[in-house]
Amino acid sequence: MPRFVSLSRAAKLVGLSRGALQKRVHDRELESFEGQVSLDDIERIFPDAEIEDNHIIEDLEKIIEQALKKAHGAKLAKLLTPDPYTLAARLQTITKEHARSQAIATDFIQLFSELKNKINELASTSSQPQLFEDFNNWLDESVTEIQSSKLIEKPLLEKDTVLRVMAAQVHLRNTGHEFFVEGNNSILEAGLSAGLALNYGCSNGNCGKCKARLLSGEIKKIKNHDYTFSESEKTQNYFLCCSNTAITEVEIEADEAGSEKDIPQQKITAKVKKVDKLSGDVLVLNLKTPRTKRLRFLAGQNIVLSHADLPPFELPIASCPCDDMNIQFHIPNNASDKFTQYISNELNISDSITVEGPGGSFVLDENSNNAIIFIAFDTGFAPIKSLIEHAVTLEHAEFIHLYWIHKGEQPYMHNQCRAWEDALDNFTYQHQEYDLSDNKPLDGKLDILLKEYSDLSGKDIYICGAETMVNETQQVLLDHNANSDRVKIQML
Predict the structure, then answer these.
(1) Over residues 95-119, mean pLDDT
(2) What is d(CA 166, CA 184) in angstroms, rounded to the nearest whole number?
(3) Four-CA torsion 298, 304, 306, 309, nearest 10 degrees
(4) Domain that holds residue 121
(5) If you average pLDDT over residues 1-5, what whole number do you get?
(6) What are the φ and ψ backbone dihedral angles of 462, each rounded to 5 degrees?
(7) Would residue 365 count as lying in a domain?
(8) Residue 296 shares a structural domain with residue 267
(9) Are 200 and 296 contacting, i.e. CB atoms less than 8 angstroms apart?
(10) Whether pLDDT at 383 is above 70
(11) CA max distance for the chain
(12) Does residue 39 surpass a pLDDT of 60?
């Protein structure tokens, strides 16, 4: 009996993106059954896939690397792998499946024996005994061939079994999203790391905003919480995502933001983690929020910063919402701006800054699977960086093209963009320098992009930068068949 797995699990097993498999389903090259695919079909379609490679080991190394940043000593082991209870429960689930398979095999052996007896009975009373004898001989030969044949190895199935021990999959019935819980993470932490906008508040078991309903599978409480469920909620299997991990594959119902309207306004005091001067023109400010009061936002949104008696300063967030405790901003180093100069010259590590928001609708359309073109002007790269990291986390787009138009020889995060291009098969990065002293600084700067896409219809395009540059770029793209409803703009 073939084993069926979700597209996300199948993609993880063969080292491809979920989008690549989704395209195969859309093109009818791969058959899907209620959102799942057969491992046998995956092996047939991808015979050369490195299904015995070290993806799982690499995943574990990533977990270790992340854990090293979070903990030291005895705390570290808890983050690296599931605890013994979790491992035992997952192994027990697989053992039960194996026992059921053995029981089915035993039933078939019994059925075969009864079939042989029935054939012999019919042969003794038939006018054509030779026919039954030939059929009986054919059965014996078939069984002998099966018993003598070498056991067919199923490396993909073996790898899936290992993955099921190391990570449990969570399915959200109400949205169709899915993600893996690795190590000893909570369901909330795993969902946020996977790029999902799950609802939460304190992430510490007090507010109850991350409550969800367990529909199937087994979970385990990993930390106590003060929030109290009603008797009705208890009978309906409600639990807190921040306080539980997944033991086996689970299906849940949980609140998830569908748009920027679903994200609440927040006011949080964050600490300065560091300030980097990447060039003479750009400052990179990194803030860290309290663990119990992290900033909820969607990739591409803005936030308002305020400090002491300085006027509020609105900036786009440059980091991914999948790491909502660490927030990054890219700030033009304007010598005439009081806030900028304070950050550059007077702000110290661990100083407090108040963040309020988020705001803005320059966000990813997660209902679209179109190819994405990002066009950034100077620090307009900040929200686009957030969008790119979010899209990559979600394995969202068929492909991504980043086109960065900038002052100076190369962009201030040129190496980051090159690293994306080297690491991602579906990512293209190009950049163009412009001269502000020119009366028409944009003139000809889009030619390389337009030569590659003679027809821009069917593409999702995101543009961010100074108002004049953005408006001129938008008009050029519309003249080249870009769909007006698929072009999003953000002014700095």
Answers:
(1) 81
(2) 10
(3) -170
(4) 85-152
(5) 69
(6) -125, 125
(7) no
(8) yes
(9) yes
(10) yes
(11) 108
(12) yes
pLDDT surpasses 90 at 77:
no
Residues 75 and 91 in one domain: no
Do 294 and 287 contact (CB within 8 A), yes or no? no
194 and 120 share one domain: no
Residue at token pair 């002014």:
491
pLDDT on residue 311: 84
Distance, in Å, from the CA atom of 398 to the CA atom of 362, rounded to the nearest integer, reads 20
The whole-angstrom separation of Cα 83 and Cα 100 is: 26
Report the pLDDT value the prediction gives residue 53, as an integer from 0 to 100.
43
- Note whether 9 and 66 are same-domain residues: no
Q: How many domains does the chain have?
A: 6
pLDDT over 70 for what percent of the chain? 89
Q: Tell me if residue 124 falls in helix, strand or coil.
A: helix
Would you place residue 150 in the very low, low, confident or very high pLDDT band (cuts 50, 70, 90)? low
* pLDDT above 80 for 87: no
Q: Are residues 387 and 476 in the same domain?
A: yes
Residue pLDDT, tens place only, 449-471: 888 888 898 899 999 999 988 99
DSSP 251-314: EEEE-B--SGGGSPPEEEEEEEEEEEE-SSSEEEEEEE--TTSPPP--TT-EEEEE-TTSPPEE
Per-residue DSSP letters for 50-107?
A: -TTSSHHHHHHHHHHHHHHHH--THHHHHHHS--HHHHHHHHHHHHHHHHHHHHHHHH
Of the residues 336, 359, 382, the one at which a domain ends: 359
Q: Are residues 400 and 464 in the same domain?
A: yes
**Residue whose token pair is 């199948």:** 10
Percent of the chain with pLDDT over 90: 42
Say how far apart CA 105 and CA 92 lie, in whole Å: 20
For residues 182 and 224, membership in a common domain is answered with yes
Within this chain, do residues 459 and 429 fall inside the same structural domain, yes or no? yes
CATH classification at residue 292? 2.40.30.10
The answer to whether 299 and 321 are in contact (CB under 8 A) is: yes
- When the pLDDT of each residue in the chain is averaged and rounded to a whole number, the result is 84
Contact in structure between 379 and 331 (CB atoms under 8 Å): yes
